[in-house]
Design a protein that fits this description.
The chain is built from three helices and ten strands, in the order H-E-E-E-E-E-E-E-H-E-H-E-E. It has helices at about 1-35, 140-150, 175-180; strands at about 60-70, 70-80, 95-100, 105-115, 115-120, 125-130, 135-140, 160-175, 185-200, 200-205. The strands form two sheets. Strands 3, 4, 5, 8, 9 and 10 form a six-stranded antiparallel sheet that branches. The chain has a four-stranded antiparallel sheet with strand order 1-2-7-6.
Length: about 210
């Protein structure tokens, strides 16, 4: 009887080991199947340096980017050396434009700076002239952007921005009294300074080297 019992015990041991190995393999397979994909890499420098030959370093484009979250869009135009106040190369005003296509709609946003202060297109958002980082930054609420341009709401992970452009120019800035009757902050273009364009794409909500809301 003892030899037979030993065989039974040995057989049971093999069954248990096989079961444990099978369970471990199944667990490993389950973990492998449920592994999350790596997060997308932050995009940076969607637009590179401009192709113009302007001598005004505050209008010389070095790069540009955009980023969004669930409620807000921020775009950045970087220049060689940003200054504030009077600009001897553009005494009547300067403009930085950022354009892109969203859901088939081509939009151009701009910041004007001159004798009458710093303004944005249609008064949208908040503009920051950062002379430390040499950046012109604008932050706009997505709801305001949609209502102004009559475009669909930007949806994180779904909306794709394409056809990026950045332009700078000297211009004649108009007084705020004229803007009060519905006119833009720019009276007339004086001279184009620099421009850049890109075929890159940005998916709304994806990480970027731009801090949304800054």
């Amino acid at each position: 009887m003892q030899p037979r019992a030993s065989v039974v015990r040995a057989t049971l041991s093999l069954v248990v080991v096989a079961a444990l190995i099978g369970a471990g393999s199944a667990s490993a397979a389950t973990k492998k199947k449920t592994r999350k994909p790596p997060p997308p890499k932050p995009v940076c420098h969607l637009l590179g340096a401009g192709t113009g030959s302007t001598s005004d370093q505050s209008l010389k484009i070095t790069s540009a980017d955009v980023a969004t979250n669930a409620t807000t869009l921020t775009y950045v135009i970087r220049v060689a050396k940003l200054t504030t106040g009077a600009d001897s190369n553009a005494p009547t005003g300067r403009e930085w434009q950022f354009g892109f296509r969203q859901d088939g709609h081509l939009m151009t946003l701009a910041v004007d700076d001159g004798p009458f202060g710093t303004t944005t297109t249609f008064g949208l958002g908040k503009a920051t002239l950062d002379t430390v980082k040499n950046e012109v930054r604008v932050t706009i609420g997505l709801r305001d952007l949609s209502n102004t341009y009559k475009t669909p709401m930007v949806r994180s992970g779904a909306t794709v921005f394409t056809e990026f452009t950045a332009r700078t120019e000297s211009m004649i800035q108009m007084p705020s009294a004229l803007k009060a009757v519905g006119l833009q902050s720019k009276l007339i273009d004086v001279a184009a300074a620099d421009s850049a364009q890109s075929t890159a794409k940005y998916v709304a909500g994806y990480p970027s080297c731009v801090q949304v809301g800054s």
